[in-house]
Specification:
- The structure is a single chain.
- The chain is of the alpha+beta class.
- The protein has one domain: Heat Shock Protein 90 (2-Layer Sandwich), CATH 3.30.565.
- It contains 4 helices and 6 strands; from the N terminus they run H-H-E-E-H-E-E-E-E-H.
- It has a 6-stranded antiparallel β-sheet with strand order 1-2-6-3-4-5, covered by helices on one side.
- Helix 1 packs across helix 3.
């Protein structure tokens, strides 16, 4: 019995690759906390709804995201930490690949960021599409810093989501 070999569609490839960046609850939270620390946060709060199965929310008091960066923060391979391959030798931050937020968009049932920088009168709530494109933005009340909300992680990978939900209480531990 022989099987045909064919190329996977682009959407499936992105989902599979994103699943290699964020493999479990711990890696998702780690990436978000590292982003907060890189933003200069001195306080980081992690909230897990239904042990992370319903949502993961990470809030910080860091510097916030500049409005000119809104469109790129969740796009694949977009980063503020690195501009060339040679720059890898001088990276002093945790997150620098531009993969984590995009992977979380790709893998979740919803992804949003609320942010405010010092000097701005109000914050901005941003929602993103599965590919990391900015879908909407609106003015909201928010202290200086950033909140990232990931809803229904692994929703697009039914087998991984099922396994995640079966073991989530053990992961939180």
């Amino acid at each position: 019995m022989s099987s045909s070999i064919w190329k996977l569609d682009t959407v499936s490839v992105h989902r599979i690759c994103a699943g290699q960046v964020v493999v479990d609850l711990a890696s998702a939270v780690k990436e978000l906390v590292e982003n907060a620390i890189d933003a200069g946060a001195t306080s980081v709060e992690v909230k897990l709804k239904e042990f992370g199965g319903e949502s993961i929310e990470v809030s910080d008091n860091g510097g916030g995201v500049a409005p000119e960066n809104y469109a790129g923060i969740a796009m694949k391979h977009h980063t503020s930490k690195l501009s060339t391959f040679e720059g890898l030798t001088s990276v002093t931050s945790f997150g620098f690949r531009g993969e984590a937020l995009n992977a979380l968009c790709e893998l979740s049932g919803g992804f949003s960021v609320t942010t405010r920088q010092a000097g701005e009168a109000v914050g901005t709530a941003l929602t993103f599409t599965r590919d990391g494109s900015l879908a909407s933005k609106k003015a909201v009340a928010r202290a200086v810093g950033t909140t990232v909300l990931v809803e229904r992680i692994f929703e697009v990978l039914p087998v991984r989501r099922g396994e995640f939900l079966r073991t989530v209480k053990k992961q939180v531990g």
